[in-house]
Amino acid sequence: MKVARLTALALAVTAPLAFAGPAQADNTASIYGFVWNDANNNGIREVGEAPIAGQWMYVDGTNKAAQSDSDGRYEITGLAAGSYVVGSADRSLSHGQGWTKQYADSRFSPATGKLTSPVVLEAGQKYGMLDSGFVTAVVDTRVNQLFISNPNPKVGDTIDIVGSTVHNGNVYDQFGGQLTLPEGLRVVERLGEMPKFYDTEPAGKVTGYFYDRKPGGLPEWVGARVVVEKPLDGAEIKYEAWKGLFRGTDTNLANDVETQTLTTG
Q: Is pLDDT above 90 for 195?
């Protein structure tokens, strides 16, 4: 039977962090909490979900940090009174895990691993229940669509060609894409919301990439408005999805590339 703490269920993600324990004798403050494997990625600590040992927790902008023990508990000590942002170290490359859904018990952003609101410490305060959940990542990054506004243009026409990538997964991840254009199409305007991957694009390429981690299921576009400068007969246009940190979990490679042809009328 799943059991969640009643206090955790009553908290919204944006609720102020206001958990405090008894004062410390030496008048410095500390921050404590628990790190665990959130197997179902719901942000709630439940019976049967294992603690995570050896996880680094840190105070951003300081040299203060601590590792979780065998029970998943950590405490960062020796803090002066003040306002602090606490972070939970990245486990994407070391353990193939992402920060879990930010809800109830899991207080850290699934995009950055940091608190979204700072904690304010008073002298001698023990500030707790800053828990961090992780889930083993499963991500399928794929082409969502390749769109050509006119697949049979005339020489001199201006057309739009855009591709989109989506990552379907249980964690936030980086992703992007690359559009490959045949000779005879001249790019006059970049399209889509993906940030440029290259400051100067290679010939015939339009690329984009999100280094900030994004939630799953939201397609993002990159493409170009082009002028058709010469006759084309079945010229290939290709769009490739670029994977992120959890590329190793993606076993479906058949949906990574889509091609279409362009023939002038």
A: yes
